[in-house]
Design a protein that fits this description.
There is one protein chain. It is globular and about 40 Å long. The protein has one domain. 29% of the residues are buried. The protein starts with 37 loop residues before the first helix and ends in a 6-residue tail after the last helix. It has four helices and no strands. By secondary structure, the chain is mostly helical.
Length: 127
């Protein structure tokens, strides 16, 4: 985990980026998606650094997907540092952000609140 890369504007974990090892995060200018990322453009236009700082709880762009939306909601509720702490703890406990290309253990959810609890505790509820 490259903690210094933190969390992307949309909530994705830049600190785990494995798609492009030369990327230094969405504000570095090196992000391969910087020109088309709706969340980046929107947050820049609102003069905020992250979607979790916005008063609107929208689902546009990458926030239409459960993982970035849940990470954004988690950071809104508990703060970015706690999110990074939870992700770091989970990685040490074998929870994978990326397992097969871009999908990992955080992608197997269909409920935002269940995923937020998983991020917080590192435990998947028994159904």
């Amino acid at each position: 985990m490259k903690r210094e890369l933190g969390i992307a504007r949309c909530g994705l974990a830049c600190c785990f980026c494995s798609e492009n090892m030369t990327c230094d995060g969405c504000d570095s200018g090196a992000c391969p998606d910087k020109d088309w990322c709706e969340n980046r453009q929107c947050s820049i236009s609102k003069k905020i650094e992250h979607c979790y700082e916005c008063n609107e709880k929208c689902r546009k762009g990458l926030l239409s997907k459960i993982k970035p939306y849940a990470f954004t909601e988690f950071a809104r509720r508990y703060g970015k540092e706690f999110l990074l702490n939870c992700l770091e703890r989970s990685e040490k406990n074998g929870i994978m952000y990326h397992r097969d290309e871009i999908n990992g253990d955080y992608d197997d959810f269909d409920d935002v609140e269940t995923l937020i609890e998983y991020i917080k505790t590192g435990y998947r509820p028994i159904s």
